[in-house]
Amino acid sequence: MISKWKAKLEDPANKKKVMIYGAVMAVFWLKMYIIQSGIFNLDVENFNEALILAFNPLSSIFLLFGVGILLAGRKGMLAMYIVGSLLLYFNVLFYREYSDFLTIPMLGQAANLAGLGGSITDILSWTDIFLFVDIFAAAFLLFYLNGKRLTSFQPKRKEGFILAALAIPLFIVNIGWAQTERTELLQRAFDRNMLVKYIGVLNFHAYDIVLQGQTEAKKTFADSNELVPVLNYLNETKSGAGEEMEGAAEGKNVILLSLESTQTFVVDNTLNGEELTPYFNDLKEEGAYFSNFYHQVKQGRTSDSEFLLDNSLYGLNRGAAFFTHSGNEYEATPEVLDKEGYTSSVMHANDATFWNRNVMYDSLGYDRFYSKKDYDVTEEKSHSWGYLDEYFFEDSLAKMEEMEEPFYNKMITLTNHHPFTLPEDKQLIEKGETSSQTLNNYFQTIRYQDEALKQFVEEFKQSDLYDDTVLVIYGDHFGISENHQQAMGEYLDKDINDYEQFQLQRVPLLMIGEGIEGKEYDTVGGQIDLRPTLMNMLGVEDDNPIQFGQDLFNEDRQELMVTRDGNFANEEYVGVNGTCYDRETGEEVEDAACGEGFEQAEEELALSDSVVYGDLLRYLDETEMIEEEETTDQ
Ligand code: GP9
Ligand code: MN
After folding, report:
1. Residue 415 annotated in active site
2. Which cellular compartments is it found in (predicted)?
3. Residue 338, H or E segment
């Protein structure tokens, strides 16, 4: 057998063939290696990880080209080369904007990706051409070398099969090797950056396909019994509402104001001696201001923040629940408040279809969605992503003044969005001078947003609404991604390590209205806590027990804020990527101090996911029965 193979390999035509296969695959490997180690920011921590990163493209490359040959010989190989290159490039573009990788649910959101609009030119670079020139090299190798000199030469199906089969042992070696750095890698795959670091971007896509299949199966096979562990967990870990603010805003209107990409680091901070948010800095003295409040979003960005807010459930780790689970049953804030006589609405001057809002808002029970078509969006009043905040605020206040009361209304701003550009006459301060253009621009749009906020809040205070309304202002998510860590370090004058990066995920939360005194709270909390906090302030009995948040004003609450990556902050510690830090000093402490926190974070996310994936709120009517059974059992 071996001698037969040896003889085959000694045949010059076959030698050439092996060389050509090898060369095509090596060029692709080189490109993938350059992208993975040079363009993606995967946090390679040691030499072993660097070797894994170099090794992990191999199995996917064998599979890719093996299948190519199987399907259509060398044409198939070239076709796969092009498909693989495009896939890599789409990931590069997506990564530049979101520091994340494409998932299947995200592909279903083509409408949204097109909405990148202004940002797309920002994330393209002329040097990207170099990511395509190798396609010509591959074509040359396959069709010139292969075709002219060896006309009889054709890749055989059997060879394709062998290449594809070799992918299996290569992948097994890859996984085994990766597990020396992180055990149960595939089971605990919260962090796509980590996954790609260990198995490579193409294998990650294969893994994502498997996940998608599992997701679909989960809903089909779910039943009401799956609510039992969820209810048990919530009963054990979450405390009810506190007394401090109970009924403080009873019967009042609610305006939730979502500030686009606004992070806490801008509050009370300056650039060249000028405050970035002068108005907000003063305003926060008038209300309940939370300085340790975190966003908890993932790929669904703004829509995830809305999902967290209205359901007190976590968004998903892949894709946006607004897209993937808009067909679920929910018992969201608008529905609960509807029973109390509230009308509900959302105001956002973008296309109604963006983030599938038009569909999802119906599922969440909103009465009305004021989208782009309800605003006087003209060329002069728009820039980049669309309607400028100042005009959005002006029109929105007018609409609210006409609204039936009491109302629950969410307003979502737009101007402070990547790429953070403004018309010249709206630039109120100079740009920054860091090494990141994105961050430099961000200072200006943040300053602009603050000015628009001033105009809105001042007019709101003059209006009849003010006495009867509680205004809740919060940031939806980060604006400056990890890709700009270095520039962020230059601005803040410190080294941005994992701890600092985590702390940068804080977003402002401020509540103002009659009966709320000016006070700063350092409570650790997140967007998931907003619904129960608000319901308690309104004095409303919320009869949906499936909520993972807790009243932020309740001093007895277990302080635990979990991010979608499975990281967490509690009163004492911050746990990030397996490392434990003292929350206040940022000093690294022994891992054991965070053990429980990480475990609870993982459990909490898994339970919340079981609710969303299993569409378990459709069994809400049965929860009372389940709870009764539980108590009689005990
Ligand atoms: C678009 C707005 C911004 O409608 O919500 O979306 P984002 O990219 O921040 O999720
Ligand atoms: Mn947003």
Report:
1. no
2. Cell membrane
3. helix 333-338
